[in-house]
Structures are given as structure tokens and as C-alpha cells.
Amino acid sequence: MRIPALFRRVSAFFSALAVIVTATLLVFIIVFTEFDLHWVTFLSGILIAASLALVSRATKADWTVERHSAKLESIQEKLAQVVQHREAAEAQLAAGNARLQLIDNELPTMIAFVDRQGIYRYHNRAFREEMRLKAEQLNGVFMRDVLGGKLYAEVAANVRKALSGESVRFVRSRPGSDGLSANLEVRYLPSFREKGVVDGFFEVQTSVPIGPQEPAGGPEQSMYVETFSEQVTGWSDAPGRIVAAIEKDEFALLCQVITPLAARPSAPNNFEIFVRLMEEEDSLIPPGAFFPLAEQFGLLPRLDRWVVQHVLDWVSNRAPTPSWSSDSIFFINLASATVCDAAFPEFVEKQLSAYHVPGRTLCFEVTELVAASERANLARFAAQIRPQGCLFALSGFGRESVSFDILRDFKADFVKIDGTVILGMLRNNVYFARVASIARVAKTIGVRSVAEFVESPEIVDKLRAAGIDFAQGIGIAKPVPLRELESRKL
Question: Are 357 and 389 part of one and the same domain?
């Protein structure tokens, strides 16, 4: 850039110098040649040509300067317009960001962004409030450090799926101030850049508050549940009545023996726990009257807690008898909402510690339908229950079809064969073959089999022939109050 500028300055200097030298030479020649006309004419022509060349060069330079000046002015005007437009755009962007920030902070939905390294790069106010952290405690912090090792272990598999480009949806629970929990629907949405590379994922959480839940049948089904339950119970305020019954210990626990079928005299009896609601004069309300209402109003997790606590209290305050031993197992049915309750395993752990009862005393039972619809939550639940020593049972198995994937995936300790299959063995050999195949595969994978709805000695003989491990039903023993178990000989 410096060399052309220097050349232009030097060339102008030499042009002027050439004119001066030519003029001087013309003067000397005129003097020494005594005004010879030929020399004067020749040298004058040279001088005129040099002058014209200098004038032409200067004129061209002026024209070039003017042209570039005009271009510069045009560029400056365009630049000023660009700057003006940019300032206007920045002002609009700032206003838009302010509005978006306002909306973002007012949204009840919890939103955050996690990059490929697992570091939080963005979060709205709802997310910070949910995590009970300030912005500086989230900015640039690893997801594992924010969630803690226990919770991160639960979501780590979903995080890996999101970072591989897969959208993930699951439900987890958070502890509530009242000891219960509220469900959170969590979505991990991958963020893609050029060529489909994932640079992180958005974490979107939506709170599902505890409260009335509409049954699957919609408003009509909800109305039917309320009308039917009110006719049976006579309650006008069902949620309040159920909560009061839990707080005042107005529920009663029944138990039904689950007896071993193998010829082992030392094998202990196990028991399934049932819950009933007591009314005046010690009459019991059937579960079909209050269970749908408790489910509709999100109260089953609280009721399941009550059952666990009172079973452990009974076990801790009773010495073993011929009816039951320290090796007996108590089966407790859990609702789907309880399986999805992330705080429930911790509650069980505290209760086991408080009552000094080994975890193997409890076997938590869920239906095959719940297992199929809540696979992710059930896997998390089973993983948290097992370290405490508690067992896991799958009930209602084999009613429609037989699939051992659930037993294998969740490593169930017991499989309870559906009662309709058991009852059908006497009239249809297909059912007997199904029961026998379940018993055979269960033994192969280390799962103990239990037959439900055993109503006659003939069914017991069939079950022994099929290789079933345990049986329960009115043909074995009727349900009795748990408080009377120690005084009964079963």
C-alpha cells in the first residue's frame, strides 16, 4: 500500500522537474543559438507537450479524486443507513428480549439447556425455583452436581438418549412439603446444529400437582365414580373423609395367607395385606367404594404409606408365632401413583429403620398392567427398593397373554398368576398348560410363582402338578384382621 502512494508522489515531482529542466534548457539554447528559429520552434513544442502532459495528469488526478470522493460519500451514506438500521434492530431485539424474558420468567413450565458436556447454559426462573438454586449456582455447573448423584443416576440413561439425538419423555416425582410428592413430566429435546450434530438438549419440566385427577373415562366416568361412591358410602366430601380416615387410623388391615405348596414343613407362611375402611359398629366399607375416589383425588400414595407404616408397626411389636415367623413375607399392593412417587422408597427406608424391621419382610406388589404402562418408573422404583432388602412381585400375570420380558427386565421375586387363569384350569387344559409353562420358566429365571383365587382342593392338586410354588385364595384361607393373626392357627 505504501509503494504505490510513494510512486504517485515521485512521478508528479519528476514531471514538474522535467518541465523546469526543459524550460531552462530552452532558455540556454535560445541564448547560445542566438534565437535560431528552428531550435526555438523545436524546444517550444517540447515544452508545450510537457506542459500539456502535466496539465492532463493533474486534471486526471483531480477527476480521480472527485470520483473517489463521491464514492466515499456514497459509502458513508450507506454506512450511516446500515448503522441506523442496526441500531433500530438492536433496539427492537432488546425490546423483544425483554418481552421474551418477561414471558419466560412468568411461564410455569421449567426450562433449561444442557450442553454436550452436561453443563447448564440456560435456565428460566421457574426452573431455578424448582431446583431452589440461584442463577450463579446453575450457570456453568455440571448437571450431575446440580441434581446430586442419586437423582442423576435415575436420569442418566435418558440424558444419554437425548445427547444421541433422541427425544425423551418420562415422569418423575419430587418430594412435597406434606411428605407426599407431585409428579413432574420431564422432556429432553435434543438441539441440533449443522449436519445433524447434537450440541445439547432442552430440559422441559411440567408440574402435575396433587389433586383431583380425571379418570380415564373422562368427565362422565368421573361423575359415575363420585355418584356410585356417594351412594355406597354416603359421603358428600369424599377427599376430606378419606384424608380424615388416614389421619385418625380408621382403616383396618386384613391379611390372607399365601401358603407354600411344596412338601416343606419348615417353610413359613406368607401373607397378602388388604385395606378396608371401618365405619360405625365396626362395619367395613368395600375397597371398590373408596379406592376409585382415593385414586381420583391423588390420595393413594398417602394411603399406601399408611399401610406400610402400620404393617411395620405390627411386625415390630409382635413376637413370631406358629401362624407366622420372622421369615414370613407381607405382600403390599401399590397403586400406579405410588410407583411413580420418587419419595416413596426413601419413606420405606426410614420406616424400616425406625421400626427395626428387615426389608425382606415387605414385598411390594404391582399389577402387570401398571408394569406395562409405567416401565421406566417401575424400573426406577425396583432399583431403589432392592438395596433396602425389599422384594418385588408382579400380579395379574398371564391373563391375556404370557410375556416374560417384564419378569426378566425388573427381576421380580414373585409372579402371581391371574385368578381367571387359575379358575379355568379345571375346565380347560389350555389354562393348565399356560400355568405349567409359567411355573417352568419362572423356576428357570429364579422367580417364585404364586397362584391366586385358589378356591378348592382340586385346584391345589392341579397347581402341585404344574409345579407352582405358592397358593392363596379362600380355598386356602379367608382374609382375617391382621391384629388377629397371632391368635389364629392357619
Answer: yes
